Amino acid sequence: MMKHALVFQTDFGLVDGAVCAMYGVANSIDPTLKIYDLTHDIPQYNIWEASYRLRQTIDYWPEGTVFVSVVDPGVGSTRRSVIARTQRNQYIITPDNGTLTHIKRIEGIESVRTFDEKANKLPTAGESFTFFGRDIYAFNGAKLAAGQIDYEHFGKTVPVESLVELPIVPAYREDHHVQGTIDVLDVRFGNLWTNIDHQLFHELDMARGDRLAVKIKNDTRTVYENTVVFAQSFAEVAIGEPLLYINSLENIGVAINQGSFAKAYNIGTGTNWRLSLCKA
What we know:
By secondary structure, this protein is an alpha+beta fold. Helix content is 19%, strand content 34%.
């Protein structure tokens, strides 16, 4: 059977041997597998961000790619282990804890299978039930990528609708305003990535260089309120000046040229962080 790329994502970091152990398991299954890292810097236990980072990257990987995503605060509990096949015929093996939220809502999931963790566990794991990234997900993900597991005959089919989902608040237009949430940060640079897509934004009839009134609230508290220019790229504004732009996912981003917007205004992410835009 054809072999496919194996892509790991975790909240383990790289300060100890956890990720290396996952690589070791995969290489033991098949030393010719091509293994890649999405990220291992998901904030600890942050299932939302794990879900979003899958959405951010999956479109750029070919059909058949196997993703192993392990952000698993419920490790060893009764939550299910699943393999999902996307509409683009890629595979994600992960705990069923909300990690598949964005893929299901935005990319589309064609089918899901759940499997017995005890019957499909790394044989040398023994009595350990705290490192499923190594013993369950890397182990079975590598077997799937190597063609040693046939997805159609592994585990049992469960309804796509049965997947655990995290709450999502859709962006919307109300009169002359567009409202959305701050879903995630462009972490290294401190830019805000919203769920307002470019099509909804352009309903405001904005052109490059126009200014918008921007309001950011955390629940009911206003954290930021100012007029901000809509630019095509960061270089179109002076260093230190804020801007609105269309990010790499074609959603609206908020940034400071060569600065961190998130740090400057102490802004976080999640459905309680709301952003409102209208033409200034």
